Each structure stands twice: as structure tokens, then as C-alpha cells.
């Protein structure tokens, strides 16, 4: 393995957001650890993520453009005071730790920094997603057991 291969492997690990990768051959071994190493998830090998095609929304009717723009600006100003918890990875979003357990959070629940708000499954590994802010859950933006993209908004939190 030459230096270019090692650099490409490092770039891949940083983009894939995994905590640790080990690459081993009969005469060469490399381990790459990222700042995510403190998380519970352990990845044994790099992964190639494929996403399902997203449905394209039909264009909105142009019957009442003035009313629609007013509603959009009101909704935007309402949401601007909230903080968004986003998905740190691609995977499947789950509100419960297992099918027979209660959901992690509901609308109206108080969350604090470090509280688990959901689980995202990626490659048969269930990664607990923790809140990075304190506040009250205002809206849950994703349905249970649906695929999510990297950086996709999951929750709206009122920090006040």
C-alpha cells in the first residue's frame, strides 16, 4: 500500500463518519481512528451507502401565490426560533430502542444535552443519537422506521 492509498483511505473514513477502521494484509496493517471513537458504534469495515430514490414532490398549484408566500414566511419565522437536531449519518430512523419498548421522546418532552432522542440503524448497527442541546421537543420531522439522509433534520427543539 503506497501513500496515495493511505491518503484515500483517510479521506474515505472522514467522509463516512465512522469511528475506527482497521485494514490488514499479510505484511501491512493500518488503524485509523476519528474523533467519533467515543461513540458506542463499532464498524469493522468501510461501507458503501446506497440511498433509496426520493419521491419528487409535484409543483404546488399557482392558484393563490400571495397567500402561499405569506404562509411560508410565517412558518419560516416560527421555525427560526427552534434548533434542529440533524441526522449524523445515513440509515433507518427509529423512535424506540426496540419494538416492545417506549419511544425515546415525544412532542412536548424536555431533553437535555446527552439524552438519547432516537436510534439510527446503519449496517445492522444501532447508533444512539443524543441531543446536543437542552430544550423542549416541538416537532418530530421523521416517521418511525423510515430512511434518513446525512444532515437531514429529525427534531425541532425550543431551547427557551
UniProtKB/TrEMBL annotation:
GO biological process terms held by the UniProt record: fatty acid biosynthetic process
InterPro entries: AcCoA_biotinCC, Biotin_Carboxyl_Carrier/Decarb, Biotin_lipoyl, Single_hybrid_motif
Pathway where it operates: Lipid metabolism; fatty acid biosynthesis
GO molecular function: acetyl-CoA carboxylase activity
Pfam families on file: Biotin_lipoyl
Cellular compartments per GO CC: acetyl-CoA carboxylase complex
Lipoyl-binding domain: residues covered: 82-158
CDD domains from the UniProt entry: biotinyl_domain (cd06850)
Signal peptide: none
Protein keywords: Biotin, Fatty acid biosynthesis, Fatty acid metabolism, Lipid biosynthesis, Lipid metabolism
Ranges that cross the membrane: none
Function (record text): This protein is a component of the acetyl coenzyme A carboxylase complex; first, biotin carboxylase catalyzes the carboxylation of the carrier protein and then the transcarboxylase transfers the carboxyl group to form malonyl-CoA.
PANTHER family associated with the record: OXALOACETATE DECARBOXYLASE ALPHA CHAIN
Protein name: Biotin carboxyl carrier protein of acetyl-CoA carboxylase
Amino acid at each position: 500500500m503506497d501513500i496515495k492509498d493511505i491518503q484515500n483511505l483517510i479521506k474515505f473514513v472522514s467522509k463516512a463518519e465512522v469511528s475506527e477502521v482497521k485494514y490488514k494484509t499479510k505484511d501491512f496493517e493500518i488503524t485509523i481512528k476519528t474523533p467519533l471513537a467515543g461513540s458506542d458504534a463499532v464498524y469493522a469495515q468501510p461501507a458503501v451507502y446506497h440511498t433509496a430514490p426520493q419521491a419528487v414532490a409535484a409543483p404546488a398549484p399557482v392558484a393563490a401565490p400571495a397567500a402561499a408566500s405569506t404562509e411560508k414566511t410565517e412558518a419560516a419565522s416560527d421555525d427560526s426560533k427552534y434548533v434542529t437536531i440533524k441526522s449524523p449519518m445515513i440509515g433507518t430512523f427509529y423512535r424506540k430502542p426496540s419494538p416492545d419498548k417506549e419511544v425515546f421522546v415525544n412532542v412536548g418532552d424536555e431533553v437535555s444535552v446527552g439524552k438519547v432522542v432516537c436510534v439510527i440503524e446503519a449496517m445492522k448497527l444501532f447508533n444512539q443519537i443524543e441531543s446536543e442541546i437542552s430544550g423542549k421537543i416541538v416537532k418530530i420531522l421523521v416517521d418511525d422506521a423510515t430512511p434518513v439522509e446525512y444532515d437531514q433534520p429529525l427534531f425541532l427543539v425550543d431551547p427557551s
